[in-house]
Amino acid sequence: MKGITDKLVRFVVETRYDDLPPAVVHEAKRMLLDSLGCAIAGLMSDKGKIAVRVARRLGGDPEATILGVGEKVSVTSAALANGELINALDYDFVLLPTHVVPYVLPASLALAEASEASGRDLILATAIAHEVSTRIAGGMMGAMHEVADEGPQKGQVRPKPGYGSCLLGGTAGAGKVMGLDQKQMAHALGIAVQMYPLPDTEAWMRSLPAPMTKYLSPAWTGPAEINAAMLAQEGFTGDPAILDGDDGFWTYLSPGRWDPQRVIDRLGERWRLMGAFYKAYPCCGGTHSAVCTFITLRDRYQLKPESIRAIRVWLAPGHDEPIHHSRGLESQVEMQFSIPYFLAVAAYGIRPGPDWQDRKTMNDPRVRELMKKITPAPHPGFAQALAKDSRTSPALVEVDVDGQTLREERSYPRGVRRREGETIGDDELVEKFRDNTSRHLPWERMEQAVDAIWNLEKVDCVSELMRLISL
Predict the structure, then answer these.
(1) pLDDT of residue 384
(2) What pLDDT, on the 0 to 100 scale, is given for residue 164?
(3) b/e per residue, 177-207, with b = 16+ CB within 10 A?
(4) How confident is the model at residue 1, as a pLDDT?
(5) Is 464 exposed, middle or buried (0-12, 13-18, 19+ CB in 10 A)?
(6) For the chain, what is the HEC assignment?
(7) How do beta strands 94-95 and 72-73 pair?
(8) Least enclosed by CB within 10 Å: which of 187, 192, 211, 263?
(9) What's the CA gap between 185 and 128, in Å, rounded?
């Protein structure tokens, strides 16, 4: 199919703020509220602290703010730090291909501040960046997980083709802020694809201590997107038809699964960013059904941690990797992915949020002892459930307590959109933002930031918002 790139680029360049449906505008605000709060909470993490130090070392002209810090550095340095901060606690929302915002927002945010763009400009760039990312990912994946229907892997969950689509979405958002024309935008995407990262989204989970890079370090993507957009603006050329033909980059990432029609189907009419899954817990999104299931049992039976003899949990395949079973907890990254750890933390009723990754919590001997009693395993019916509903994430939990076994199952985690009683609403997102920022911002500043985000279309300059969310 020819002309896919041209149609996507036209959508990016021609879409104006007034073209956005009210629901999309509101969702972009929700994305910003959630992400900025997660970034400020990320200042407590080792990963976030290192990123801030590196951004300071790189320095540059004082163009854009390091979130929560207030210090200004160059746009590329700010994008480096802010991407790592957003993802530092693994608390940011999920959208196909999985994590998107730490890879697409920092470039647009930094450029919007540096160019004195308006809140409307930032909303538009946020919507564009996420929409492009998730549509290209959909062309390669189709769904968050897929079950192979033929070949030696028939019935097994296929691995994801990585987060590279976010690099293209982030470049589109950056180019939108910069006002690139259609020709420049096509070349910007062609330049960006040259830096497309390898899809090593699985292997890292087998390495302990867990690497801070995780599935992909956002430190690379934001600066790369800015560079691609700036090069194109100055006349540097790339392949202006990167999504066309039969031998594109996707052949190396998702052989046999490229469906270009999914990229442009109802483009500008049906906004796929509306499928964002907001996290209620600061841990791997694939485990949230298990967390929700255990908390249901905990609350229903008023379970006391000291009475628990064993917890067995079955969830999505892939969670039998070493990082998901880790009891050593040598890093905060392991806290985010260790099923025994965060179920033990939940058993003790510790408030979900930054406290889950506080080192005092990690080193609590009661938590450590309960972790020994928790055993994760792959859910035997996952592939069959996924074949029926690509958004399902089934979990089964059994708890041995007081001579009996309590059992509970769940098909979806909290936060999945359009499931009655499951969506995380605006009020809960505000509470999450407050909790995430309470260690760093005074209450008055926090409330002013919330108000500014909900009324972002009235903000004349993005720097006004950045001032509110920084010390």
Answers:
(1) 81
(2) 85
(3) bbebeeebbbbbbbbbbebbbebebeebbee
(4) 40
(5) middle
(6) CCCHHHHHHHHHHHCCHHHCCHHHHHHHHHHHHHHHHHHHHHHHCHHHHHHHHHHHHHCCCCCEECCECCCEECHHHHHHHHHHHHHCCCCCCEECCEECHHHHHHHHHHHHHHCCCCHHHHHHHHHHHHHHHHHHHHHHHCCCCCECCCCCCCCCECCCCCCHHHHHHHHHHHHHHHCCCHHHHHHHHHHHHHHCCCCCCCHHHHCCCCCCCCCCCHHHHHHHHHHHHHHHHCCCCCCCCCCCCCCCHHHHCCCCCCCCHHHHCCCCCCCHHHHCECCCCCCCHHHHHHHHHHHHHHHHCCCCHHHEEEEEEEECCCCCCHHHHCCCCCCHHHHHHCHHHHHHHHHCCCCCCHHHHCHHHHCCHHHHHHHCCEEEEECCCHHHHHHHCCCCCCEEEEEEECCEEEEEEECCCCCCCCCCCCCCCHHHHHHHHHHHHCCCCCHHHHHHHHHHHHCHHHCCCHHHHHHHCEC
(7) unpaired
(8) 211
(9) 13
**What residues have CB less than 8 Å from 352, skipping those under 6 apart?**
280, 281, 282, 346
Candidates 359, 374, 375; CA nearest to 305 is 374
Token pair in block for residue 289: 């059904």
Q: What is the mean pLDDT of each run of 10 residues along the chain (471 residues)?
A: 86 98 98 98 96 98 96 98 98 93 98 98 98 94 60 57 88 98 98 86 80 92 98 97 87 76 96 95 94 96 97 87 89 94 97 94 96 93 77 91 94 71 88 97 96 98 96 82
pLDDT score of 421: 58
Q: How far apart are CA 249 and CA 386, in angstroms?
A: 27
Q: What is the pLDDT of residue 412?
A: 85
Reading the block at residue 301, the tokens are 């039976």
Query: Count of alpha carbons within 13 Å of 453, Cβ hemisphere only?
Result: 27
What confidence score (pLDDT) does residue 134 get? Answer: 95
Q: What is the pTM of this model?
A: 0.94
How are beta strands 374-378 and 308-315 bridged, if at all? parallel
Q: What pLDDT score does 145 carry?
A: 57
CA dihedral 425, 389, 256, 95 (to 10 degrees): 10
27-30's contacts with Cβ under 8 Å and 24+ in sequence apart are 27/127, 27/271, 27/273, 27/274, 27/276, 28/123, 28/124, 28/126, 28/127, 28/130, 28/273, 29/123, 29/453, 29/454, 29/456, 30/276, 30/278, 30/426, 30/429
Contact 73, 59 (CB under 8 A): yes
